[in-house]
Amino acid sequence: MSRSLRSGALAAGVAVAVITLAACGGEDTASSGGGGGGTSAVKVGLITKTETNPFFVKMKEGAASAAKANGAELMTAAGKFDGDNAGQITAIENMVAAGVKGILITPSDSKAIVPALEKARSAGVMVIALDSPTEPQSATDALFATDNFKAGELIGQYAKAAMAGKPAKIATLDLAPGVAVGKLRHDGFLKGFGIAEGDPAVVCSQDTQGDQSKGQTAMENCLQKAPDINVVYTINEPAALGAHTALKARGRDKDVLVVSVDGGCTGVKAMRSGQIAATSQQYPLKMAEDGVKAVVTYAKGGSKASGYTDTGVTLITDKPVTGVESKDVAFGLQNCWG
C-alpha cells in the first residue's frame, strides 16, 4: 500500500542521533518548532515507510506544521524502501536515545516491528501508529488512521453497483504479504463486492508493493492469465495507473472498471481522464497533525493517547452510483495530497 521531509536543527548532542538516522537509510533531519528552542522543546519522532511516496510527504508536512504550532522539535526517518523493517528499528532506537517523548510510525512490517516498539514504550516513550496498525494493535498506545477496511469496502460497494448485475471477472492488485493495510483494504473490497476470499469471480491476484511499474507488470500477468478481466481493484493509485497502462496496451482501457484507494492528487486527476473510476480518499496530514498534538499533550503532563482514532475516508468519483455515498472529483481535488 503502497508512503514522508526536512527542517532545522536540534541541539548539538542530538545532532549525532540525526546523523545516525541518515545512515540507517531513510529520512535524516530534525526540525525545530517555532515556539520551542534548544532542549526545552518537546521532541517528537516521525518514522514513515519511505521518504518519496506523496502520502508520506504530506504526512511529514502535517507533522512539521503541528510541531511548529506547538513549539515541538520534530525528528524524522524513513525506510529505504516499503518493507524496510530493519531501517525502522534503527530509527526507533536512535530516537529513543535522542530523548523523544513520542514516536509516530507507519509500520512497514506490522508484526516484525513489535519488539522494537515494546522496548521504546518500556522506556517511557508513547508510540502512535499512523495509517497502519501493528499486529497486535495493542503493541502501540494508539492508532490514528483511515479505516482501511472501510476504504476497501466503499470501493467494493461502488464496483458492485457499477457493474449493474454484469458477471464480474476481478483482478486484485494487492500490496505485499505481512502488511496489515494491504490485507484490510483487500478484505474490505471483497466484503463490499459481496464475495468471500476464494470466490471464483476473482480470477487473478498479484502483489505490487504499491508501485506503478509493478502494477503494470501485475496487470500484464493477469491479462495473460485471464484476458476477459472487467474489474480491477488496486491497493493504491500508482498501482492503478500502472494497471491502466497495461490495459491500454491491450485496448482494454475503455471497458475495464478500475477502482483504488488513497486520494492523492495524481490519482484524483486520473479520474478526470477516465483512468480510474473511483477511489477512497484518506487524509495523511490530519493523521500526523493529531499525532504530534497527542505527543505534546502527553509530554506536558496529560494522559497518553489510546485506542483507535478514525481520521476519515471519502469515496471520490464523478460517476456516482445509487446506494453508495460519494463526493465528486472537485471535492477530491480540494482535499487531495501530493
TrEMBL record:
InterPro entries membership: Peripla_BP_I, SBP_2_dom
Main location: other
Protein name (Swiss-Prot/TrEMBL): Fructose transport system substrate-binding protein
Residues of the signal peptide: 1-22
Span of domain Periplasmic binding protein: 44-302
Matches recorded under PROSITE patterns: PROKAR_LIPOPROTEIN
Species: Streptosporangium becharense
Alphabetized GO MF terms: carbohydrate binding
The keyword Zinc is assigned to this record: no
A UniProt-annotated Pfam family: Peripla_BP_4
Family annotation (SUPFAM superfamilies): Periplasmic binding protein-like I (SSF53822)
Entry similarity comment: Belongs to the bacterial solute-binding protein 2 family.
UniProt keyword list: Signal
GO cellular component, one term: cell envelope
